[in-house]
TrEMBL record:
Protein name: Histidine kinase
Keyword annotations from UniProtKB, A to Z: Cell membrane, Kinase, Membrane, Phosphoprotein, Transferase, Transmembrane, Transmembrane helix
UniProt topology in membrane: Multi-pass membrane protein
Ribonucleoprotein is among the record's keywords: no
Pfam families assigned: His_kinase (PF06580)
SUPFAM superfamilies with a match to the protein in the record: ATPase domain of HSP90 chaperone/DNA topoisomerase II/histidine kinase, HAMP domain-like
Domain HAMP intervals: 305-357
Record keyword Protein biosynthesis present: no
Subcellular location: Cell membrane
Domain of life: Bacteria
Length: 569
């Protein structure tokens, strides 16, 4: 079966086909934009982190160089020179000179730091901001040639690096002439992280695997610790990036490893924050597409209501007229240009119905005229038979039978010759039928009839000659073709929906096929050539009364045919 789409479905299909490529292209473009933005932001963050890490490494390198400068200072050599006996004043002067130089070197760095010199042989300690005692256990435990992080539970954590002079004394610090310690505090890194965060959108921190991260004061410690736990399970390259989901939100994480401090500078930012302009643009586009789709549906619905529904009504009306429903009218008010079409359609349908009814009436009248013409041809023969019967009765001296024939024949012809009115009462029709039955009974003398019509039906108006053709068929084609005694019964009754008259006979009857064929013949359209009196009665009943009126044929309980005349007022 071929699928036919109406205008509404075609418009909706067109809108969908039009919007789908646009949505697909935009989705692809949006995905490319998101990828490009993510790549650019990742590269930008990595560059910023690399620059920040290089600054931090440069400062750390400067502090490392400071320890070398201190180890080459002449005052330290003089203080360590034991060949010349120095007075207490001279030693204090050298120590003050060294402290001054340490302060000067410490001030050259942008970070707060501490420079300390340990003299293992003399058990002395010289520092720019520390007055302590020589502790060989501390040196043996912490003496490292690289920068080492010392987290503190209480106080400021720090980074430290030692330089031993001479370098060979690393194996045994007690044999060294001097041990220079360079120390800077964690607060320096915290300050740098704060400055770095102010110029960016992320949250930077320093990550030491297995240690507490170094973060600024405005960071979220809980979130950073969750990220650190995730980083502990990852194998990190010297620099890179990854996407981590925390608290049902995705974060872009970039990291760069510091060469000097052996830690990672990590910066992370929510993807939603990065992509918020693109997301807003995407949501605005989808909202626009949704709004456009809704507006298109509204327009399509309006078009459906204003065009498609009226077209459906017109098609329904055309199909109704085509199928013979000439009373079809369009009871719909579209309140637009279709009002004129509906009005003209109803006028056209009315004119068609009027013309059809006129043609129908002409055909009915033509059939009635033809039937009367046939009756006029039959009546002379019928009249001749009746006159011959009268002559014979007079010849045999049966004046009573002759008189009865004359009276019934006169009443019969008086009724059928009244052609000016096509309607009569049921009582007059039954009187004529009784005259006809009396005439036929006088001639044949081998049947009798019974008539039972209620008094309430006597004045019902019916078409003339509605019952007589049926009675005539029962006598001629039923009783007349058999040898046994015939019976004809006529019974009337009223129902809730209409009236009916049942004519039964005990004639030769018909088979089921013949009855069905007869029922079909009387129901044929009026255009069919049909000279049957039964057809004429059936068609006049259909035209004169409601659609359920007409003749119904069946087997009679008496053995012949039952003809039921039905009509609704």
């Amino acid at each position: 079966m071929r699928l036919k789409l109406n205008i509404f479905k075609k418009i909706m299909l067109f809108i969908i086909v039009l919007l789908i490529p646009i949505v697909i292209l935009y989705s692809y473009s949006n995905q490319v934009s998101v990828t490009v933005v993510e790549d650019e932001i990742q590269n930008s963050n990595l560059n910023r982190l690399s620059f920040f890490t290089s600054q931090m490494d440069n400062i750390v390198n400067q502090l490392s160089i400071t320890s070398i400068i201190v180890s080459k200072d002449q005052s330290i050599k003089e203080l360590l020179d034991t060949t010349n006996q120095k007075s207490m004043f001279e030693q204090l002067r050298l120590q003050e000179s060294i402290v001054g130089k340490l302060n000067l070197l410490s001030a050259t760095s942008s970070w707060s730091n501490r420079l300390t010199i340990y003299f293992p042989k003399t058990k002395q300690v010289v520092s720019n901001d520390y007055n302590g005692v020589y502790d060989p256990d501390f040196l043996r435990k912490n003496l490292k040639t690289h920068w080492e992080y010392h987290p503190q539970e209480a106080g400021d954590a720090y980074f430290t690096k030692f330089m031993v002079s001479p370098l060979i004394s690393y194996l045994d610090p007690e044999d060294a002439e001097a041990i220079i310690e360079v120390r800077f505090f964690q607060q320096n890194l915290i300050n740098m992280l704060s400055d770095f965060q102010q110029v960016g959108k992320g949250t930077p921190f320093l990550y030491y695997p297995g240690e507490e991260p170094i973060m600024n004061t405005v960071s979220d410690p809980t979130l950073i610790r969750k990220l650190v736990a995730r980083l502990d399970s990852e194998h990190l390259e010297p620099l890179g990036h990854l996407i981590v989901e925390m608290n049902q939100e995705k974060y872009l994480v970039d990291y760069v490893k510091s060469k000097n401090l052996d830690c990672y500078l990590v910066d992370f930012v929510p993807l939603e924050k990065i992509l918020s302009p693109i997301v807003k643009s995407r949501n605005l586009f989808y909202f626009s597409i949704g709004l456009l789709l809704i507006m298109s549906i509204v327009v399509a619905l309006l078009l459906y209501k204003q065009v498609q529904i009226p077209i459906k009504w017109l098609l329904r009306g055309v199909h109704g007229i085509r199928s013979g429903q000439y009373a079809m009218r369009l009871h719909y008010n579209p309140n637009n240009e279709f009002d004129y079409l509906f009005l003209r359609f109803n006028e056209m349908a009315g004119q068609i119905q009027e013309l059809v009814e006129k043609v129908y009436m002409e055909n009915i009248r033509y059939r009635e005229a033809k039937l009367k013409h046939l009756q006029s041809q039959i009546n002379p023969h019928f009249l001749y038979n009746c006159l011959f019967f009268i002559k014979n009765m007079i010849a045999v001296g049966d004046k009573q039978a002759a008189t009865a024939m004359v009276l019934n024949l006169g009443d019969y012809y008086r009724y059928i010759t009244k052609l000016e009115n096509a309607m009569t009462t049921l009582q007059d029709e039954m009187n004529m039928v009784q005259n006809y039955l009396n005439i036929q009974n006088l001639r044949i003398e081998r049947f009798h009839y019974e008539i039972d019509i209620p008094e309430s039906m006597a004045q019902l108006v019916i078409p003339r000659l509605m019952i007589q053709p049926i009675v005539e068929n029962a006598i001629v084609h039923g009783i007349g073709k058999m040898e046994r005694y015939g019976i004809i019964s006529i019974e009337g009754s009223r129902t809730e929906t209409g009236n009916r008259i049942i004519i039964d006979d005990n004639g030769i009857g018909m088979s089921d096929e013949k009855l069905a064929e007869l029922q079909q013949r009387v129901a044929l359209p009026m255009e069919e050539e049909m000279s049957c009196g039964l057809w004429n009665v059936h068609q006049r009943l259909l035209y004169q009364f409601k659609k359920n009126s007409g003749l119904v044929f069946s087997h009679s309980p008496q053995g012949g045919i039952r003809v039921e005349i039905r009509w609704e007022e």
